[in-house]
Amino acid sequence: MDAYAVVETGGKQYRVQKDSIIDVETIEGDAGAKISLDRVLAVSDGTTLNVGAPVIAGAAVKAEIVKQFKADKVVNFRKNKRKGFHKKIGHRQRLTRLKIEAVA
């Protein structure tokens, strides 16, 4: 089994391993910038699992920003029948695509 880590960013948790690509809430930086995800909740080297309480001190996951983009539009439509009321609201979440380079 390969080494992996569980990291937290943007209030969500992601299971990552080397060369995996994930889409996370916006992280400041241009495409090609190297970043470090410091909130590592768990690390496995393939045989043993090390779980933090809540984070592992000194552990970090190195990643590269691939691109900044917006997700597909989510549409919310509200209507009151027989009242002539309708309201259409759209939202596009800003995301960052990361490529994981190292799990340490």
User: Any low-confidence stretches, pLDDT <50, length ≥5?
Assistant: none
Task: Return Rg in Å.
Answer: 19 Å
Order of helices and strands: EEEEEEEEEE
- What separation lies between the terminal Cα atoms? 16 Å
Main beta-sheet strand count, sense and barrel state: 4 strands, antiparallel
Helix content: under 10%
* Mean pLDDT score: 96
Spatial strand order of the main sheet: 2-1-5-6
Short description:
With 104 residues, this protein is mainly beta.
Descriptive key words:
0% helix, elongated, mainly beta, 10 strands, 104 residues
Notes on the structure:
The chain is mainly β. It has one domain (4-103). Helix content is 0%, strand content 60%. A 4-stranded antiparallel beta sheet has the order 2-1-5-6, with no helix packed on it. A hairpin with a 2-residue loop joins β1 and β2. 12% of the residues are buried. The model has no long low-confidence stretch (mean pLDDT 96).
